Amino acid sequence: MELVVCQDVADLGRRAAQAGAELLRDAIQRQGEANIIVATGASQFATLAALLQEPGIDWTRVTAFHLDEYIGLPATHPASFRRFLHERFVDLVPLKGFHDVQADVGDPAEECARLGKLIAQVTIDVAFVGIGENGHLAFNDPPADFETEVPYLVVNLDEACRRQQLGEGWFPTLADVPSRAISMSVKQILKSRSLICSVPDARKATAVKNSVEGPVTPDVPASILQRHGQTRLFVDPPATRELTRAAT
């Protein structure tokens, strides 16, 4: 894992986007197309905005896969991750395709199977992800399942995760935050050739420390990124407050 400390959130977004864009351009040049994973949440605002400004990406050759979504939340809800991605990314570039998590209709297990079949047909070139305040990776809250081979699964959201969503202003009360979600699995995320991880804000400092300096453990799901040789973790100074080693 390469740790990159940026000047501020805007610099974080630019540098993460530049790194991701370079990987995308290389993949398209090498193989004629690229596949990416896109995440949501406040940590992704600056990165996605900067990615849209990167030159030389033929978006008509890029297919995007959605990382996670609340079960039962319609796409019209302000907290819907699908809505977030359409408004901030998907509808702003001419993607070859976007495979979203449709978790508000039908059987969640069937939706996991549908998405699993789609992503099993490709190799992900770049995954744009973040880390939660509780150390989660996607919606894989602690203790995360590091062993499951299924690409997507139904997960229960712990209270820390739900309180983060409340604290970010997505829901009026804790009771309004869904308790279940569909999430890409840890193993599927780690199958990506490269990971661009954006983690700003002091409230993520403990999670960053535990993910970077602590042992690899399901109790800190993002610690598994230590075992992926092509992970770049972009942080701003407040997110590094608890680190005891310098950036590499």
Would you write up a description of this structure?
The chain is of the alpha/beta class and 248 residues long. It has 7 helices and 10 strands. The mean pLDDT is 94. The chain has one domain (2-231): Rossmann fold (3-Layer(aba) Sandwich), CATH 3.40.50. A 7-stranded parallel β-sheet has the order 1-10-9-6-2-3-5, sandwiched between helices. A 3-stranded antiparallel β-sheet has the order 4-8-7. α1 crosses α2. 30% of the residues lie in helices and 18% in strands. It has helices spanning 9-31, 45-52, 81-88, 108-119, 159-167, 186-190, 205-213; strands at 2-5, 34-38, 62-66, 68-70, 97-99, 126-129, 152-156, 180-184, 194-199, 231-235. α7 (205-213) links the parallel β9 and β10 (231-235).
Features:
248 residues, alpha/beta, Rossmann fold, seven-stranded parallel beta sheet, three-stranded antiparallel beta sheet, 7 helices, globular
Give a nutshell description of this structure.
The chain has 248 residues and is an alpha/beta fold.
> Which series of helices and strands comes N to C?
EHEHEEHEHEEHEHEHE
Instruction: Please identify the top-level CATH class.
Output: Alpha Beta
In CATH terms, what is the architecture? 3-Layer(aba) Sandwich
Number of helices: 7
As for the number of domains, it is 1
Q: How large is the share of residues in beta strands?
A: 15-25%
Our measurement of the CA-to-CA distance between the termini, rounded to an integer number of angstroms, reads 9 Å
Give the structural class. Answer: alpha/beta
Overall residue-averaged pLDDT value: 94
| Beta strand count | 10
Roughly how many Å is the radius of gyration?
Answer: 17 Å
CATH-defined topology = Rossmann fold
Task: Give a short account of the largest sheet.
Answer: 7 strands, parallel
State the shape.
Answer: globular
Helical percent range?
A: 25-40%
Q: Biggest sheet: strands side by side, in what order?
A: 1-10-9-6-2-3-5
